[in-house]
Write a structure and sequence with these properties.
292 residues; alpha/beta; Cobalt-precorrin-4 Transmethylase, domain 1; Rossmann fold; 3 domains; four-stranded parallel beta sheet; 11 helices; flat; binds iron/sulfur cluster
Length: 292
């Protein structure tokens, strides 16, 4: 049996940058706070905690003073920066440049929307850390839609300026655009401005991972449940190979998955470390030896 790790998998540059920024500071001082999990991967978080990283939530952040806090790749809303100034917190801002660019676009779009009596709509997951940062650019006035059903939250007597969370599916975005355009197509004074702001690190992987998954007997996708690009990429695998399984750790592997199997592909989310996929590969080979 052959076990192959997807050559296009591993951390995206946004995650690499945040981890390097944390490691650099931890090397120097041995202590650093991070607002939320630095990466959606328990073992990586544990590894960094071992070097002195302390993961905190927003309530804990509000109580801190005179310390250094890392902002992870998902970015933060303006209120976080304001609290940092008030509490003399030094921020190490590792927001992904793609997310920062999107935050600025939404901020400008919101100012524009106010002048044109339009509304800002974000195609994304309500409550996701990146979306909280995006909503913050609009004083939390953006309308968040994730499912087709959520479209009823939009006022179709007003124009729409639409953006997407960076890790959403391109097909889902295109479908939402189509529905919104259809709803206001006969209203001459209204417009729809659709900004496809999906990160290419995710959307470019769709054709690659689809091909990779289709040619394997079994596909193992490694991701943590919280990872939204992981769910999206796993669904792409599942759509072309129904022997696709997702796991978070090697303990989740089941030997019956590998019956009558000649090739196994391993892939992961943009936050799945390469070393974890290597561990999964070793564990599959061991399982197979036990069953043969
Ligand atoms: S998926 Fe894209 S936007 Fe998100 S952290 Fe990675 S590079 Fe940045």
């Amino acid at each position: 049996m052959k076990v192959i790790i997807d050559p296009n998998s591993g951390y995206c540059f946004g995650v690499v940058y945040a981890i390097l920024a944390a490691e650099e500071e931890l090397e120097k001082t041995g202590e650093l706070y991070c607002l939320g999990d630095i990466v959606h991967n328990n073992r990586e978080v544990e590894r960094l905690k071992g070097k002195g990283l302390k993961i905190i939530n927003h309530d804990e952040f509000a109580l801190l003073k005179n310390v250094k806090v890392l902002i992870r790749a998902h970015g933060e809303p303006p209120t976080t920066y304001k609290t940092a100034v008030e509490n003399n917190i030094e921020l190490i801002d590792a927001s992904c440049p793609v997310v920062l660019r999107l935050q600025n676009k939404i901020k400008t779009g919101y100012e524009d929307a106010l002048k044109k009596n339009a509304q800002i709509v974000i195609y994304g997951k309500k409550g996701h850390a990146e979306v909280i940062g995006l909503e913050g650019q609009t004083n939390n006035n953006a309308i968040i839609i994730n499912e087709k059903d959520d479209i009823r939250k939009i006022d179709f007597e007003k124009s729409v300026i639409l953006f997407s969370q960076t890790t959403q599916s391109k097909d889902g975005f295109d479908e939402i655009v189509k529905i919104i355009k259809e709803k206001i197509k006969n209203k001459n004074n209204l417009f729809v401005e659709a900004n496809d702001t999906i990160c290419r690190q995710v959307s470019n992987r769709e054709p690659q991972i689809s091909h990779f998954a289709a040619v394997q007997d079994v596909l193992i996708f490694v991701r943590r449940k919280k990872s939204s690009n992981g769910l999206y990429l796993f669904n792409v695998c599942k759509s072309v190979n129904n022997r696709s399984y997702f796991i978070s750790t090697v303990e989740d592997l089941k030997k019956e998955w590998f019956e009558n199997c000649q090739s196994v592909g391993i892939s992961g989310a943009t936050s799945t470390p390469m070393w974890l996929m290597k561990d999964v590969s070793d564990a599959i080979l061991k399982l197979k030896l036990l069953t043969d």
